[in-house]
User: What shape does this take?
Amino acid sequence: MQGFGYSNQYAETINRMGDCHQIELFISCRSLKDVDTFSKSDPRARIHLQNGNSRWVTLGDTETIENNLNPNFSTTFRIDYLFEVNQAIRIEIFDVDKDKLNFIGEGVLTVATIMGSRQQCALSDIRNPKAQNKVTGKLIVRAEEVSISRDVLTMQFYGLKLENKEGWFSKSDPFLNFYRKAEDGSWLKTHTTETVKNNLNPVWLPFELSTQKLANGDNFRPIKIECMDWESNGSHVLIGEAELNINHLLENPKAGFALVNPAKKKKSSYKNSGTLHLKFVQVRQDNTFVDYLRGGYQLSLALAIDYTASNGFPTNPQSLHYAYGGGPNVYQQAISAVGDIVCRYDYDGKFPVFGFGGRVGKGNP
Assistant: This one.
């Protein structure tokens, strides 16, 4: 496991615990420092994990949310929860400016802090160590234990007669936010669609979402869908929302869902702000690696070795091909590390090896 950034302590703990729990992390920020001049920051989060005394491992980035100092990211991260290991999490927040990342700050906390907090929701300062450790916002990290579900939904939604939020000379630019209800009653964002510009009868693109992500594998867990009117300054306006569950989508996919604006519900003449419909919904199971192996899937290992002069002469200690160090060189180490695993999944045990850019014998190409 060290090849993936895990320490021996981590591997030993997994062996002791046998069946470790997985948790899903949801990330939000509040009151971020605005580092843009003429608009608001476009934040993106990057999460790193440290298990015990091992090195930091980057788990990935969230999506970028434009013009928003209080983002709720829909990208989540699943990690193993190991009670006996001190698991640290570092979350960096950046402002995305085209291809440039401007560092806003970072928050550091532990998995134990999150899981030990009330409702498994932890709050931390975001600080910039490059600017005298000044506070540049607040970080909110929420965790839920993962319920295993292999069902994946492919869905396409469309709206009809949406309320126009743009006045006389334009039409709303609608997009959808999806949330699942947490055990404490709060809503956790799971997905955001693209924006359909200037359209009160929008058709959004099809998308895939696992039932685990959408509702933590529970077909009866409440889901909220918000229909929003996009604004360039990030102050998006609610058109209406609908509350349902996966079972509603599967049992009666042709039924429409009224989009209701809670601020208008008290008006006697108000019915809804449009309706949301499913164009289609499909369910499939996401096969695991073990499923493929049971079906006869094999891995075939083939090797290609670069012998070009750019790697240096084998007599040079700096060369990747150095052959006089009393042990395997870098190429041999890499081949052994990968080959020792993959070879066990190849029935015939034959591994083609190719070389290029070298010479065999004196003067031969």
Notes: Helices lie at 8-17, 111-116, 211-215, 246-251, 289-294, 330-342.
